[in-house]
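Structure tokens please, single chain.
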Amino acid sequence: MLPGITLILAGILITLYPQLLAIIVASLMIMMGMFISIIAYYNRQLRKHYDNPAVEFFFR
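Here you go.
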């Protein structure tokens, strides 16, 4: 129930302040980019430690 109320309030705020949608989308894209970069960094670290072809297959 709480997520539903939160989404309704977010929808009302976005209707009143359309710039809020741009801020939300931009911040989500920035966070996704950071997470992808962090995952890629850790995958490179794992490649240095493990020379297993199965590990390389799954992390590609």
